[in-house]
Amino acid sequence: QVCAQLCRRPCYCPWVPPRCPRGSPLVLDGCGCCKVCARRLGEPCDFLHVCDQSQGLVCDYSSAPAGTGGTCNFEDDEEGCEVNGRLYRDGEVFQPSCKIQCHCLGGGFTCIPLCQEDVRLPSPDCPFPRRVEIPGKCCPEWICEGAQEQPLPRDARAAPGAVSPLLRYPCPPWGTEWSSCSATCGLGFASRVSNQNRLCRLETQRRLCSAGPCPALPAALPA
């Protein structure tokens, strides 16, 4: 009886189908007559305005007053996620972009990066590394920019970051802070990673350090 009241035969549909928002496909209405935009999760629905069945949605009338429309919800009432206008079911793994992968769980989602977040330090063959986007590739890549040759200063050893006589390009200084002394008292070693050497190569450097005098040992008792 409801179908007879709402559905007219023959069908009278607009010449131009409606333009749907992103994530909402064109589907047949409840009469199987005209193309309409499928309703998404949480949107109102009724007999004519159907929910997106491809996302597992049905029109839920359980919380609606009698005689009114319902709300689009998952058929088994499970929680889902909506990302960029698209719905994902609980437990589903998806990629909103080529750079991240996400997991829908409990109504929310967590994502992990798919591109390596590595760090490239200056080196003799690549004194000025730079990360750039490459056309046709998803993840950015490291490129090496050529350094312009500069004349050597008169005293190359006194100028910080100056070029070594063995190198043809400047050596940008890089290094970590010195570590704490390895000993709690007396002499010990402190270390760091630095490229300040003749070949501009990363190496572990050590130096002596003093953590103060050690406490005197108690005198041995006479036997």
Automatic annotation (TrEMBL):
Superkingdom to which the source organism belongs: Eukaryota
Domain IGFBP N-terminal: 1-75
Domain VWFC positions: 79-145
Entry keyword annotation includes DNA repair: no
UniProt-listed Pfam families: IGFBP, TSP1_CCN, VWC
GO CC, any one term: extracellular space
Cellular location(s): Secreted
Protein keywords: Disulfide bond, Secreted, Signal
Gene Ontology biological process terms in this record: cell adhesion; positive regulation of cell differentiation; signal transduction
SUPFAM superfamilies: Growth factor receptor domain (SSF57184), TSP-1 type 1 repeat (SSF82895)
GO MF, any single term: heparin binding
InterPro entries noted in UniProt: CCN, Growth_fac_rcpt_cys_sf, IGFBP-like, Insulin_GF-bd_Cys-rich_CS, TSP1_CCN, TSP1_rpt, TSP1_rpt_sf, VWF_dom
PANTHER family (UniProt xref): CCN FAMILY MEMBER 5, CONNECTIVE TISSUE GROWTH FACTOR-RELATED
Family named by the database record: Belongs to the CCN family.
Protein name: WISP2 protein
Species assigned in the record: Cardinalis cardinalis (Northern cardinal)
